[in-house]
Every structure is written in C-alpha cells, then in structure tokens.
Amino acid sequence: MLLGVNIDHVATVRNARGGVEPQPIEAGKICEKCQVRSITTHLREDRRHIKDEDVEKISKLNTFLNLEMAVTDEMQKIALRIKPHSVCLVPEKRQEVTTEGGLDVAGQLEKITKFVKPLVDAGIEVSLFIDPTEEQVKASSKTGAQFIELHTGSYSNAYGTENEETEFQKLKSAAKLGQELGLTVNAGHGLDYKNVKRMHEIDGLYELNIGHSIISKAIFTGLEQAINEMKELIK
Ligand code: PXP
Known about the structure:
This protein has an 8-stranded parallel barrel with strand order 1-2-3-4-5-6-7-8, surrounded by 8 helices. Helix content is about 45%, strand content about 15%. It has 10 helices and 8 strands. About 45% of the residues are buried. The termini are close together. Strand 3 (about 65-70), helix 4 and strand 4 (about 85-90) form a beta-alpha-beta unit. The protein has one domain: Aldolase class I (TIM Barrel). By secondary structure, the chain is an alpha/beta fold. The longest helix has 17 residues, at about 165-180. The structure holds pyridoxine-5'-phosphate (PXP). The site of pyridoxine-5'-phosphate has 19 residues, from strand 8 and helix 9.
C-alpha cells in the first residue's frame, strides 16, 4: 500500500494566527523527501485551511498532488487549470469540522458523471470518496472515475469496540466489489498508527490517505519521522 499525506492541518495552524507560518509548502517538501506517493490538500469552498496559493505552490513539487474538492463549478475550473495528478471528490458542508460522510454518488449519478468527464479527459485521475456500501461502489463504477476512496471513518471510530468487525467487513466487501468492477481502491479518514494495521487484511488496497494522525504525531516527533513511521506500518 502507498501513502498519501494530507497536510491541511499545517494550514490550519498557520491560519490560527493569520500569518505565514507554518507553510504547507514546507510540509510538502518533507513529504517529497519521504517519497510518499501523493500530497493531499482539501481546497474548501470557505478556504478555512488550504488556500489557492498553497495549492499552486504544492502543484509545482515533483510528488503527485491529490486535490480534494467539492463537486462545484469553481473547483472544477481550478482543477482544470492547475491539473493536479488526481482529484478526490468529496461532499462538503459549511458547518462540518471535517468531511463527515461519503459522497452520495448513487443519488446524483448523472451530475457526478458529467462532472468527472472533463477532468478525466484532461488526464486527471478522479477518485470518489464514498461510504463502503454496495450501492455507492456500483454507482461509482458507472461515472468514469478510475478510483474510489473508501471512507474509513466509521471503522476508525469503531476500532476497539464491538462494532469494529462489522465496520471492517463493510470496507473489505466494498473494496472487493470495487476491484471486481475495475476500480482502483484507496481508503482514508480517521486512520491512525493503530487502526491502520488492519488495512493489510484488505486485498489490493492501493493508497491510504492520512492526515490528522500524522500531523498530530509530527508535533512531537517532527514530520519526517511521523511520515516514515506510517510508511513502515503500511508498506
Ligand atoms: N480522505 C478524505 C477524502 C478526507 O476528507 C480526509 C480528511 O480531510 C482524509 C482522507 C484524511 O483524514 P484524516 O485527517 O482523518 O487522516
């Protein structure tokens, strides 16, 4: 499995003081040094953490940029201009603290299919961040997107409780179905240095996108060590 590192929290800390430090691009350079597969930034509609200029700068690194974004015309224009290696389409609600649920692909199949096409035509890999259900995986396979990212939030929350196995099996079945339908399957959200280990039990997972736990550890160990420890766990 490969690692994608989400560095949004670096921008959150910077914005807390309204100044210029710490710079997400500096985190990006460390990700590059650690040879992660991709650097993820979520450019939210309200720009609460990552800003447009951060995305511009990070897009110039040699490491793949994975741009997380909502299904809006504004974001589509930005993606088509910057041409990140990949985009991950997520639902976005103003009041949420972080991305809460998966994208309802089944409920808006036509809209998402139309949205995906120009991105794929521009050579951008498109991933859909979805809950691990049969309905969402099947719908995703009809959109033209090449990837899905399974939302691991419910599994992560259930980790160590009686619901862990149920949530884990949902991920396992969804990953299998996605692969059978020709999709490359990623996963992420809420993964940490403990619960990530079970991702090895899911055959063929391609990339894990992890942010919060890595940046949290990095406060104490430094980002390079935090990334390398995670790489070791998932390789
Ligand atoms: N994948 C997606 C689509 C996300 O929205 C997020 C959170 O921004 C992550 C992965 C990373 O989640 P976490 O910060 O909990 O590791």
